[in-house]
């Protein structure tokens, strides 16, 4: 191996020492500060992402956050429009099921509606998409139980009325629910309605009455059922509105809690109000699909109605 002259060896060593000194100087000065700043920026970014993830989790998995999300994406106008469109659809679907399809079991139809709704909400809960309910202390079980019982009467009698009455008479009975709510809220909560809302209510009621009067067909038993349906329907809407606005309940969370109670009471009402022969019904594909479509409309109606009743009113 050829040995370098001393002056070349000294030059190479000096260059190496100089390069090492420059590198140490860079690391000791701005370089180290630069690396440290990069590490700090990465830590701050990680903390920001963690805080964002935590806030999103709280919004989706707390009753207050879920209620804020519901109010943000579903305002009063959206909820009312949604409810109106679904209400028209379910009246037509139920009348077809009990008419052309020949399913003469209105309480059983209501039971199927709530059973399908329970399956859909159980699926949402399995996928962690069902909003969390408020703490049990905020709402007594007696209120949930009363709401579930009233819902069974309201929905069951509504379908019995639709079976025995024309669509026009059914709509006329439905008009009477809103004035009943106004009177009941005034008697129970001393809640007054402004003159502007009263005039609007009168005009809308008169318009619906004129639009459906040509379809009126009087049936004594159907009229009695319609009158019996008005009171539980009004109480149902009052309880829904009161619980959602006072207890931070979202529509789906409250539906999840009350649906099993409603199913239980519908099972007890079915032998009393439905005719025999449910198992003898022709459960072919066509009839079953029509009933399932009606049940999907029923789920959407309950959800949209809960959204509309849970909106905050301007005082």
From TrEMBL:
GO cellular component: membrane
Main location: membrane
Topological category with respect to the lipid bilayer: Multi-pass membrane protein
One Pfam family it belongs to: TPT
Residue runs in coiled coils: none
Location of the Sugar phosphate transporter domain: 82-269
UniProt-annotated location(s): Membrane
Sequence intervals crossing the membrane: 105-124, 144-162, 168-189, 220-240, 252-273, 285-309
Keywords, sorted A to Z: Membrane, Transmembrane, Transmembrane helix
Annotated protein name in UniProt: Sugar phosphate transporter domain-containing protein
Organism from which the protein derives: Sorghum bicolor
